[in-house]
Amino acid sequence: MKKTTMILMVFALTLGLSLPLTAAGTEIIGAGATFPLPVYTKMFSAYNKEFGVKVNYQGVGSGTGIKQLLKKVTEFGGTDAYMSDKDIAAAPAKIVHIPTCLGAVVVTYNLPGNPTIKLSQEVLADIFLANITKWNDPAIAKLNPKANLPKTDILIVHRSDKSGTTKNFTGYLTQIDKEWADEVGSGKTVEWPAGLGAPKNAGVAGLIKQTPGSIGYVELAYALENDMPVAALENKSGKFILPTVKSTSLAIPSDIPADTRTYISDTAAPDGYPIAALTWIILYKEQNYKGRSFEQAKALLDLLWWVSHDGQVHTTALNYAPLSDDMVKKVEAILKSVTYGGKPILK
Predict the structure, then answer these.
(1) Class of domain 104-255+264-276
(2) What percent of the chain has pLDDT over 90?
(3) Confidence (pLDDT) at 232
């Protein structure tokens, strides 16, 4: 792609403007969730090296990713919060969801020596409700008798932008705590009882790392990338589970719906991590729109087929869990339903 064309595309994405997606099929434009950004960066780089196809993905948050797809600024969006029936009905055309991997929403913090701490469901909710405001609170100390907990205030850090990570985290708190469900609820944005906001997973991780006494939530890769501690969270079975690829994979249920739109937190698996989350790439089911060529639509479908098959090899090294065999089959069926001019693109 010529330099001038690329500059115009970046300028359009920045301003939320719309451009015809008629560029050569060697470049695909997407934007959205920061939750999977580390693994997408690796996947798309590997895809470019193997096939010569550039994937320009901007980590702008799930809410903005959905908005840009709806405006047809991008060819695909990334989101950790699936679109509701109501939202899909209000879209310009039918949208489908392609799950790409699973991640763990982790609780990370900044304490002297950064010990690994345990947090029960009740204590976790009470911290983010600001019912527990000191690190040496008896409820935290009881769970962590060997930890040297300071007398300092707890500073909550949360997302300031529309976020699928927030949707998954607040959705979990809504499942496990009635007070949270009644007073705050779940969503890509919520009215937080207390704390400071930061944009994107990287922003939350950065603010926590530089702020003693802080606590917040990010995708596991961001905590590990920044050498930050993560809490062992109590799951439905009463076990305290650390987030790993294995414990995240154990959270995958066997009854994923055909359209793959589901949340999987609060698993019943005895050794499963309680805040596991799917992340999706969303696109229009009918790809013949706004001057798109068949070749461009085929390039997008080929990319998504590779991501859900060969591309899965890149997940575990970056601490994401790969799709299960059952989910891969559902992805295949969805991709084969995507059309150009009413005819399936993939045979």
Answers:
(1) alpha beta
(2) 91
(3) 98
